[in-house]
Amino acid sequence: MQLCGFLFLAVLILAAGTTEAGKNKKEKGKKGGSECEDWHWGPCTPNSKDCGVGFREGRCNDETRRLKCKVPCNWKKEFGADCKYKFESWGPCDGASGTKARQGTLKKALYNAQCQETIRVTKPCSPKAKPKSKAKKGKGKD
Known about the structure:
Blueprint: H1 2-29, E1 40-41, E2 45-46, E3 52-60, E4 63-71, E5 83-87, E6 99-109, E7 118-124
Antiparallel strand pairs: 1-3, 2-3, 3-4, 5-6, 6-7
């Protein structure tokens, strides 16, 4: 019975120590110790060209912060990199325009981005399957 009580006490002390360590990590995560909770973030702006590593600026009352961010190089400019959509399958090829389309429904808006609820995107139809090229025959091998 005493062994059981000792184990319970040991677990209790260990749990208390873990909780304190978690609090310290949280406090370290606060840069500048800001108490502001209503941050408004702008879009991620790449350092050069229209994709790659860049910064996002945020404001809360009279405070301003910059976060490092990255715009994927295949992002869709029409709806922005901060709007995440769930897309349907691609539709059939429209012979007149040579494109196919699909619709997306907003799944998540990052950093308070202004996103459309549904979007429609198009892309060129892929050409018919190309015949596989025949492997080259090795020279001097009989």
